């Protein structure tokens, strides 16, 4: 099985030595997404809710570029710098995953790249 690099200008370019996503067979691994505006190295805003939406939009755009959708997501990992924002994140997350509920972990971390407040990554599967 070979790996295919997934790249789209609808999500921010990698800010390090990694790919936005890697497709291996029916699996898609989406790298952690923070709230960078596509085509920029700037955060969308300092507001947690704005950052959560942008990070999820970036993740969704990488899924789309690979031919996947949110309903193909098997697991989501979320990193936040303030667990006090957990309920805010859950409300926004439900806008994206209202019917389909992937496995998920939310972990508080000391810091994220670019001073972001939230980062999301996912693993998706689709039989082609």
TrEMBL record:
Assigned GO CC terms: cytosol
InterPro entries from the UniProt entry: RidA, RutC-like_sf, YjgF/YER057c/UK114
Domain of life: Bacteria
Record field: transmembrane: none
Gene3D superfamilies: RutC-like (3.30.1330.40)
Annotated GO MF terms: deaminase activity
A Pfam family annotated for this UniProt entry: Ribonuc_L-PSP
Family in the record: Belongs to the RutC family.
Entry protein name: Reactive intermediate/imine deaminase
Species of provenance: Desulforhabdus amnigena
């Amino acid at each position: 099985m070979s790996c295919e690099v997934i790249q789209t200008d609808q999500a921010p370019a990698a800010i390090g030595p990694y790919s936005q996503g890697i497709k291996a067979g029916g699996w898609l691994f989406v790298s952690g997404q923070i709230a960078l505006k596509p085509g920029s190295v700037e955060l969308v805003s300092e507001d947690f809710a704005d950052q959560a939406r942008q990070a999820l939009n970036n993740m969704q755009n990488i899924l789309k570029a690979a031919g996947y959708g949110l309903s193909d997501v098997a697991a989501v990992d979320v990193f936040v710098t303030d667990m006090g924002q957990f309920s805010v994140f859950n409300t926004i997350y439900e806008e994206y995953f209202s019917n389909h509920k992937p496995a998920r972990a939310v972990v508080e971390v000391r810091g994220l790249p670019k001073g972001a407040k939230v980062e999301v990554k996912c693993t998706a599967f689709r039989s082609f």
